[in-house]
Amino acid sequence: MKNIVIIGATSAIAIACAREWAREGARFFLVARNEERLEQVAADLIARGAQSAACYRLDIDELDAHAAALARCVTELASLDIVLVAPGTLPDQKSCEADAAVAVREFNTNATALIALLTPLANTLEAQRHGALAVISSVAGDRGRPSNYLYGSAKAALSAFLEGLRARLFKAGVSVLTIKPGFVATPMTAGLPLPERLVATPDKVAADIVRGIERKRNVLYTPWFWRGIMAIIRNLPQFLFKRASL
Q: Is 246 part of a structural domain of the chain?
């Protein structure tokens, strides 16, 4: 029986992952900002076979509240087998360009707050000397494209942080997976003009994540073809890149 912590547990991808683990009879500690929605997710997981599903309300932007959340998590589960970190927002690039306060707020939510949360989490996993940490970043972090460079810069910072954390925790027997989804059909992307052939379902992405954790992968592009797409984008020379509509 696995003890699983999910932070950002009401996101579509997190729910899809949790449902896969619920079928195995996992025990959950679920963390999210919307308490009512969190309780609904917990009830759904119990109905699908979860052994238990404790809920904890946390807004990750409230940095002073992180320590209490982690302490409660350890009290509930004792040992942490899998920690999935999934919170995030998809900011409007034009709004970030127009208002520095918006830009800083969105960067803090997608990078700074997560780094603040991951730091004590990493210490806990290092001390217990086992477990898997999986964090949702994005393909957007691979290069600063003009259409979403605020979001991309936050995800780039997060991915770089995870790379260093991976090397550190490897020595303690803890795996760290950086998850880089492309376009996913979620409430966060609803209404965006996305290319239909490149949009994945949360269930597809979740299956890749669960498999990636089991195999102790380092970096996961999901669906798989995004690795190739981003390799092309990363290697475009600057004189072409700055003229492209990306």
A: no
Full residue range of the structural domain in which residue 130 is found: 3-241
Supply the CATH number for residue 220's domain: 3.40.50.720
Q: What pLDDT, in 10s, does the model give residues 16-71?
A: 999 999 999 999 999 999 999 999 999 999 999 999 999 999 999 999 999 999 99
Active-site residue list: 151
Quickly list DSSP for 58-80.
--TT-GGGHHHHHHHHHHHHSS-
Cα 184 to Cα 76, 180, 188, 199, 231, distances in angstroms: 32, 11, 9, 5, 19
Structure tokens at 132: 């898997």
Closest CA to 18 of 61, 48, 39: 48
Residue for token digits 């800083």? Answer: 104
